[in-house]
Write a structure and sequence with these properties.
- The complex is a heterodimer.
- Chain A is α+β, with helices and mostly antiparallel strands.
- The radius of gyration of chain B is 17 Å and the shape is flat.
- Chain B starts with a strand and ends in a 5-residue tail after the last helix.
- In chain B, helix 3 links the parallel strand 3 and strand 4.
- The longest helix of chain B has 23 residues.
- By secondary structure, chain B is α+β, with helices and mostly antiparallel strands.
- Classes of the chains: A alpha+beta, B alpha+beta.
């Protein structure tokens, strides 16, 4: 499986995923396709996600949409002004929390017995990875000068 | 302007001890080239959709990765391809599954999205739609690689039951 997620200079997000599926699959099986919401999702309000791994488990958890929903709620919980008693989290703290979201969703996949990984970008320009396998072919680049590729943990 | 890009070429039991340094360098070079293709579009002010399409088409064309040319084989020794794309601005989406002759399935997924009437097309119908939209088709043998065929043969030689073969990985 291959995929990409991007934030452009206009502030728009996009996600794309493509795969050959699983060796030896039968019976018209399409559970390992990058179904919208499970393996691929993009929403300017939250993030763009592309996934790779045990497709059926990603469907059951709704991984890509679940990550976007949680990030949207995280943003809302920190920025909604009606809760004046609740102090806004520091920028650093929010950034750390964002990494916890894909980690937590992938942990749910693992709990059910599946494995794999996700890439995501946020409207703020973070490019994040999360995977529960020994390796993941991956790369990221940003306008701040980050440019890296990696395979192993 | 701020831009950002992340890419992947699959995840799994990828162990350093099973890969030569030359192979590792080849994979890293392929990933870097795909990353640069998408980055240059974003740095020039291009759209996120164009950037992710540029990355994915490049990786689909590279037989090292399990998508497009170099895809794994089904039990019946066919290459069946799937792809999906989504626009975060509008939440428009397009996906295809089980196509066997579309050179770059991600282009077909984007055509499905742009058409707007449907989100998910499959098999023969998706290929008919592709022909109507002028999406490039190839002979299915284009996707075939010996490495992937060997992997299927090894799987079959293990004489697994149907249930074993249909284990939940993809």
């Amino acid at each position: 499986t291959v995929g990409a997620v991007a934030l452009d200079q206009q502030g728009n997000l996009a996600a794309a995923t493509s795969t050959g599926g699983l060796t030896g699959k039968r019976w018209g099986r399409i559970g390992d396709a990058p179904i919208i919401g499970a393996g691929t999702y993009a929403d300017n309000r939250a993030c763009a996600v592309s996934a790779t791994g045990a497709g059926e488990y990603f469907i059951r958890v709704g991984v890509a949409h679940e990550i976007c929903s949680r990030l949207r709620m995280l943003e809302a919980s920190n920025y909604l002004k009606f809760d004046k008693a609740r102090p806004l989290a520091a920028e650093e703290e929010i950034r750390a929390m964002k990494q916890l979201v894909p980690d937590a969703v992938l942990a749910e996949v693992k709990e059910l017995g599946g494995d794999g990984g996700v890439i995501l970008v946020t409207p703020e320009g973070e490019a994040l990875f999360s995977f529960n396998t020994p390796g993941m072919y991956r790369g990221r680049a940003t306008s701040t000068g980050m440019r890296e590729v990696a395979i192993f943990e | 302007g701020r831009w950002s890009l992340a890419i992947h070429g699959g995840a799994g039991t990828i162990l350093r001890e099973n890969m030569t340094s030359d192979q590792e360098a080849e994979y890293e070079a392929a990933l870097a080239a795909a990353l640069d293709a998408g980055s240059s579009i974003l740095a020039d002010g291009g759209s996120a959709l164009d950037a992710v399409e540029a990355v994915v088409t490049r990786l689909e064309d590279d037989p090292k990765f399990n998508a497009g040319r170099g895809a794994v084989f089904t039990w019946d020794e066919a290459n069946e391809l799937d792809a999906a794309i989504m626009d975060g601005r509008t939440r428009e989406a397009g996906a295809v599954t089980g196509v066997t002759s579309i050179k770059n399935p991600i282009l077909l997924a984007r055509a499905v999205m742009m058409d707007g009437r449907h989100v998910f097309l499959s098999g023969e119908g998706a290929e008919t739609f592709a022909n109507e939209r002028g999406i490039e088709a190839v002979d299915p043998s284009y996707f075939r690689t010996e490495k992937r065929l060997e992997a299927l043969k090894r799987l079959k030689e293990r004489e697994l039951s149907a249930l074993d073969v249909d284990h939940k990985y993809g």
